Amino acid sequence: MQNIEPIAIQHEAGAAPAPRGRAIVLTSGKGGVGKTTTTANLGTALAERGASVVLVDADVGLRNLDIVLGLESRVKHHLLDVLEERVQIEDALVAGKHSDRLQLLAAAQSREKEEVHTPQMVALIATLRERFDFVLIDCPAGIEMGFRNAVAGADEAIVICTPEVSAVRDVDRVIGLLGNRFRPQLIVNRLRPQLVKRGKMLSIDDVNGILRLPLLGAIADEPEIIITTNRGEPLALRKENPTGAAYHAIAARLAGEDVPVPMPPTPRPTLKERVTALFGGNRS
User: Fold this and answer.
1) pTM (whole model) above 0.85
2) For 163-174, how does the pLDDT look when each residue is reduced to its tens digit (9 = 90+)?
3) Banded model confidence at residue 80, pLDDT cuts 50, 70, 90
4) Secondary structure of the chain in HEC code, one letter for each residue
C-alpha cells in the first residue's frame, strides 16, 4: 500500500466567502460497514426535517446509492458526465421518490476512480454547496485516489465504524489521514446489544475508547434495514421504527440540535438469565 499523507486542501486567501451549505463526507476506510445505507438514511432524515440535501455517490465504478434509494431506473447521467461538462448539473440530478428536497448525483458505473480529477471535484462540491443545505458524499472504500477525491471538497466528515477490531483499525487510519480540519464525528453501525452484553462484540465504549471522536449515534444491526434497503425505501422514512427514529436523531444532532445520542434499546434478559438472576444466588 502506498504511503498517503494527511489530507491538506489549501484555500486561497481572499477567496469568495464560504458557501451556505455543508459538505460532509461519509467514510470508513473498510468496505461493507454500511456507508451507503447510512448516507441514504441520513440524507432522507435531513430532507424529512425540511433541509435541502444532495447525495453524491463518489464510488466511481461501483454505483450503489441509486439502488438503496430506489432510483436506479431514473439515472440518465452521472458524476463524470458533469465533471467532463457533457451535461449540466441539473440534467444529472435525480429527485428522490418521496421528497424533491432530496436529490442524487449518481456515480459512473463503467468508469474508473482515477478518471476523476481532484480540482474538478472540489469545484463541483462548492457549486452544490451554493444550492443545498447539505451535500453528503458517499466515499468509496479504501484510502487511495477515490478516497482523496471524495474528501477533497468536504469540510466535515462522518466516519462509520462497525464494532469489529478490523473496522476500528481502518477507521483509526482514516482519522489520521483526515486530521482535525474535517472535525470527524462517529456513527457506530450494526451494533448488536445482545452480543455486547455477552462479551462477544465490542461495545460503543470499546470502539470510542480507541477512536475518541464525538459520537453522533449508534445504529442497531436489524433485519429491517436489509429489507428496506433491498426495496429502495430508506428506513428513515419510518419514524415509528426505533432505527428509523435513530437516523432522525442523528440528523437532528448533525443539524445542531441538543438531542440525546441515539442508542439501540437495551436487550431484554432471556428466560435463562431471568431464572439465573432469581435462583442463581440461592444455591448452596
Assistant:
1) yes
2) 999 999 999 999
3) very high
4) CCCCCCCCCCCCCCCCCCCCCEEEEEECCCCCCCHHHHHHHHHHHHHHCCCCEEEEECCCCCCCHHHHCCCHHHCCCCHHHHHCCCCCHHHHCEECCCCCCEEEECCCCCCCHHHCCHHHHHHHHHHHHHHCCEEEEECCCCCCHHHHHHHHCCCEEEEEECCCHHHHHHHHHHHHHHCHHHCCEEEEEEECHHHHHCCCCCCHHHHHHHHCCCEEEEEECCHHHHHHHHCCCCHHHCCCCHHHHHHHHHHHHHCCCCCCCCCCCCCCCCHHHHHHHHHHHHCC
**Which residue is associated with the grid cell 469540510?**
155
